[in-house]
Write a structure and sequence with these properties.
The protein is an alpha/beta fold. It has 14 helices and 7 strands. It has 2 domains: 192 residues, Vaccinia Virus protein VP39 (Rossmann fold); 97 residues, Putative methyltransferase TM0872, insert domain (DNA polymerase, domain 1), CATH 1.10.150.170.
């Protein structure tokens, strides 16, 4: 554990929006290193139910569970299983919930997990106990499907070149390591002005696909909001445009803000209903200069928050 470091992004802002109160129950849907859960527990004498699909994160959380005298419970599971997991714990309502989306620093920094091309390791990328690995996708997915995945989930404009290079190479030798795959990607994608490594977008696409992250987010937001009491708040920190787009649209719909409706067109049914939520952030909150100086990984983070104002 000491070999890793984890710095929660926008943690002070996130907990401020959650607004923990004594005696209330909160959800940390993406426990990771426990940074958000710890700040919530220290802000008020409340309870936190935390979820993580990574068994290693749940194991790390054992020390925190012991330290907070029964106020923290950490369970293994996906964020798409919130209703089942909380139901098993007899939790039927939440006073607030927070999600820190994407991959954790623990996972990125562990070469054995295969998330990063900065550390050579087995091409895995599973956050939990999923069946398919990143190696399975690059070694066996059809070229057209591979190209579409890289374009849609990685927003890589050179996706067809990347897919073609991967397929040509795997015909000679299957991919096993992160550095091997990154080298092939770099051979067909030139560095751009952003300074981002050419392999970044393809690695992002593979990670999202392996862990079904976008589907997980959509289901988790629906389930978490269904449990929020009046006054309960949902706070989400995202790290790339695909995540943020899902959160932004979900929040807008929940708050009765249906985008792109012509003033000449009929008002959609969902827009005519009284909104059950209000936005606490009309624009995303982003890290300040001080946080960016301490944690470069925070640079793409965006925080959005909303509050339930009417009962379900």
């Amino acid at each position: 554990m000491n070999a890793f470091s984890h710095v929660p992004v926008l943690a002070d802002e996130a907990v401020s929006y959650v607004n923990p109160l004594p005696g209330k129950i909160y959800l940390d849907g993406t426990f990771g290193g426990g940074g958000y859960a710890r700040k919530i527990l220290e802000a008020a004498w409340c309870q936190v139910f935390a979820i993580d699909r990574d068994p290693a994160a749940v194991e790390r959380g054992a020390a925190m569970v012991a330290a907070y005298d029964g106020r923290l419970r950490v369970v293994e599971g996906r964020i798409s299983e919130i209703l089942v997991l909380l139901g098993a714990a007899r939790v039927s309502a939440l006073d607030g919930a927070v999600f820190d989306l994407g991959v954790s620093s623990y996972q990125i920094d562990d070469p054995a997990r295969g998330f990063s091309f900065r550390h050579d390791g087995k091409l895995d990328m599973r956050m939990g106990k999923g069946e398919k690995t990143a190696a399975d996708l690059v070694n066996f997915m059809a070229e057209s499907e591979l190209a579409d995945m890289i374009f849609q989930l990685g927003e890589e404009k050179a996706s067809r070149r990347v897919a073609a290079a991967i397929v040509a190479r795997r015909a000679q030798q299957k991919f096993e390591t992160t550095s091997d795959l990154a080298g092939v990607i770099r051979s067909v994608v030139r560095p751009d002005k952003s300074g981002i490594d050419p392999a970044t977008r393809t690695f992002q696409a593979l990670r999202i696909a392996v862990n079904e992250e976008l589907m997980e987010i959509e289901v988790a937001l629906e389930q978490a909001t269904s449990l929020l009491v009046v006054g309960g708040r949902l706070v989400v920190v995202s790290f790339h445009s695909l995540e943020d787009r899902i959160v932004k649209n979900f929040f807008a719909k929940a708050a009765g803000r249906v985008p792109g409706v012509s003033r000449h067109a009929p008002v959609p049914a969902e827009a005519s209903e009284t909104p059950k939520f209000k936005l606490l952030t009309t624009k995303p909150v982003t890290p300040g200069a001080a946080e960016l100086a301490k944690n470069a990984r925070a640079r793409s983070a965006k925080l959005r928050a909303m509050e339930r104002i009417l009962a379900p």
